[in-house]
Amino acid sequence: MTLVADILNRLELVRLQDKSEQVRIAETIRLHSNDSLEKTISLLNKEFSQLNKRKRSSPDSSLESESSKDSEISLSESQADKIYRHMYKLSLLISESVPSQEQLLPIYTFIRSCLSSSHIEESISLCSLYCLWNLVPHSGRYFSQKGERESLFKLLLNSIKSENTNARQIAFEILCLTAELYAGLLQDQLEVIFDNISKAAVVESSEIADVAVRFWISFVSAVIRSQEQGGIEHTQEYDILKPFLSRIISLLLALLTKQSPELIADPNTETTEVTRTAAEALCLFCKTYKNDCVRIVLPYVEKHIENANFRFREAALVSFGSCLENNEEFLLPYLKLALPSFVNYLKTDEIVLVKDAVCWVLAGVYEFMPKIVIDFSNEAAESKRSNAYNHIDHVVPVLVETLKTTESLAKNVIDAFTNLLKVHDAEMQRTGVSLISTDPDDLPPVTKSLITYIPQIYNALKNSLDNPKMRNFADVISETICILVEMCPATLVDTVKKIHVESLQKIKTLVVPEDLKKLFDMTVEEAQECDEFYSAYLAISGSCIQKLALILSLNSAICSNVVVMLLQILFHLNQAQVSFDILPSLYEELLFNLSQIASVEYLIDTNPLIAKAESLLPLIIMILEEAFRNEGQWPEYMPFSMIEVSLNLTVQLYRLAHASDTIDKYSHQVWNALSDCLIYPHYGWEVRPMICKIVGELSQIMNQKFEPFLPQAMNILLDSFTHYKEHGVQFRGAMVEDYDDQYLENLFDGFTGVFISLSGSQTQAEKLIPYVKLIVTAILDALNNEDYVGLPSRDVLVASMVLITQMASIGVLVRDYMNSSDLFELIEDCHSSDDADLVAIAETAYEKMNEMLNDDV
């Protein structure tokens, strides 16, 4: 819910106290929004016409000025009630549907009449402001006209001076929206806007001051968008704001220490919302205007970094951290001198807020200026002095100790660790060095330094994960541990094993049936908190399994224990009827862990999941059925990623156990579950490409056993192609750029998998003949489609060539069903590509097509 909508709903003056009346209006809006909008405008026209008539016939009207007559409205109670109801309904209607240009004019007239009158009731004024807030995105024509723009801003500035707190807050929110959408048109208004924001930031409550300051975030964000779209730095928006830069930065710096007088000296009081907003705005300004801002900020930092008042020390650090992005060249010399001091502040400053600011700055340094850490490590390695400064040696022990002793700093300390580990990764990529094959003495200095601290960092993170008070940070802690595991070189295999075993032991001690029983008496909210906490441990395990597959294969006992433990949890949850909606992340991570183990190539013949496939597959089928058979409505608690994990695990189980008959009895249920995806005509765009891929993989794995399911498989693929043609254009605008490519590639791969599975013998191949012409038509329709965005990708063309090759391999049986001339034209297009691999695949397709045409009947 938006801020202004929330304010409207919380109004003490709202006349529609009857909730059923509000529900009735909302339902009418959903069903008849266009008709209702026209009708509401007509009713308001009638009410305001009557008011104007009454004013003209008033005995006192001759004494009033013309402008006063137009602006002042005096309402009886019944008239106020009618206008309020109509304006309330109008505000909801505008939020649901876009008014036409013809409708905008009367709506703006109503808003002006309400907001320009000093006698109008506050509830009506607030409704009018809400209407205006919803109209702004559709009012480009009005804002482009100077007179209309000035008129609207006059109304907004009057509302900013209103005695009503909600009115002031909504007015500032509307200003933010105008900056976001029409920044390039606000040059004439910026001076008065700056004055009002400056005043609000000082005298208003924190909530209103926060909204006011967000105007600058909206404006500078619009500057960044204009730069990205235009590909130039000095856009119109950029130049409009630059003359105000010095004053804006000075205001933001002053707000970094804003606090109520009674709390200013309390070190346990967190910074206010407006202070955090000012810091966010400062980051954006320094990123966009670079040196112009940094030159203003650095004197402030130098002045207050040693200030006796901790508020100013914190503000100095925050302001410096705000300068880091996009300013490496300018700040690097300064940072070489300052970074050792920052580490010292983390060790010696007694104020937690200052320590937190230091950790935030360090995380920013490692993210935006990794060169400084690399330079310190290189200089220390090359120096003959034993006391040469190596930043990693100084900072890691301090960060470890800070994480142990100060829980409230966990987020920024962990971010600092994560970004510091990524410095190593960036240096490894730059130098092209491999951790596995490189002698430890030849590793880059920054990596050699970090490796020595892996056990310390891991233990600090693991202990944090144990701490219930840090449960909110479980996801970021697990992510950092995963990065740590990934960077362990071959020389630290023992350390890696230790980390892995300890991670698994942690899961065993935390997520066992006895502990899970505690979840059954919890509320949904409490259970969801535990869901995130437990699944964070499983995420660590999943990463370990993925990164340490070779170690797992060398220690089958560990692998078997992991499988037993994961299945024990999974089946216990199922038997205890803990549904997916209570612990969705936990279920997903459990399945992901099992999928990772199933995919370990080194365990293809000895994988412990082979014996468990028969008991695990029914549970996966249950998950798929719950997702696909819910009357066409996707369950809100079921993430698409969970379906992807479930489908991938299904394929892996068939791959492992296809030689046995133990899972054959479930094949009908599996294919029925896959067929159920067809009930999603509208939002199936996210499910169907995935299903097409699974159809191809599963049909190949089942091989000879696939034949009974051929009609279902082809129905899924052909129906998905129809869905692609009918709905592709509709969803293309909202999808990622490779939407067409991924969908088509998976479709072609699905068809190819089916042909591979049944082309081994002539008897089985004959069953494919009825589908050949349909598939050829699909290929040509898709790749020659005028709605296709750009050219088909290389992967789509490769998939199409492989499919043509596979169909032609059947030989003379399909000769009459393949539109040879069109297919040869497509093959020739691919053969003229600059991609050598695509050319080679096209040549193979050409040869197979010729063989098919030249075969004797």
What's the SSE blueprint?
Blueprint: H1 3-9, H2 19-31, H3 33-57, H4 66-71, H5 77-96, H6 101-115, H7 122-135, H8 140-143, H9 146-160, H10 165-182, H11 190-203, H12 206-230, H13 236-241, H14 245-255, H15 273-289, H16 291-304, H17 310-322, H18 328-348, H19 352-368, H20 370-382, H21 391-405, H22 410-431, H23 445-451, H24 454-466, H25 474-486, H26 493-510, H27 513-516, H28 524-547, H29 549-554, H30 556-575, H31 584-598, H32 613-628, H33 640-657, H34 667-675, H35 688-702, H36 710-732, H37 739-758, H38 762-766, H39 769-783, H40 794-808, H41 820-831, H42 836-854
Helix pairs in contact: 2-3, 2-5, 3-5, 3-6, 5-7, 6-7, 7-10, 9-10, 10-12, 11-12, 12-15, 14-15, 14-16, 15-17, 16-17, 17-19, 18-19, 18-21, 19-20, 19-22, 20-22, 21-22, 21-24, 22-25, 24-25, 25-28, 26-28, 28-31, 30-31, 31-33, 32-33, 32-34, 33-35, 34-36, 35-36, 35-37, 36-37, 36-39, 37-40, 40-42, ...
